[in-house]
Recover the amino acids of this structure.
């Protein structure tokens, strides 16, 4: 979790810097996702894992939906970097476990 937070913070700082140089959210998403896609394929290939064979056919619509929603969330996340100070942005981002637990309690009736 700490490594993820560090990588996320570094990516946010990089985009904040690049957005001041004229890089748009769409360009940032294209290059970041292209790099991640290639890295995941290389890692999966080196481990001998198939990225498509292990997913049941009935789960594919959910997988695609999750991917689309993930892209929308990342677009909003990146756009917020262009309008908020970086410190406020990271504070709001780091409160997500709190909001997830509240939503799990309200929507799924889970115990807190």
């Amino acid at each position: 979790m700490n490594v993820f937070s560090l990588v996320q913070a570094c990516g946010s700082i990089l985009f904040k810097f690049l957005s001041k140089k004229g890089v748009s959210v769409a360009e940032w998403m294209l290059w970041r996702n292209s790099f991640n896609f290639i890295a995941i394929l290389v890692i999966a290939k080196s481990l001998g894992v198939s990225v498509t064979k292990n997913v049941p056919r009935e789960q594919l619509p959910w997988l695609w939906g999750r991917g689309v929603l993930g892209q929308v969330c990342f677009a909003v996340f990146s756009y917020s970097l262009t309008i908020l100070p970086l410190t406020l942005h990271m504070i709001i981002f780091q409160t997500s476990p709190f909001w997830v637990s509240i939503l799990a309690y309200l929507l799924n009736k889970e115990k807190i």
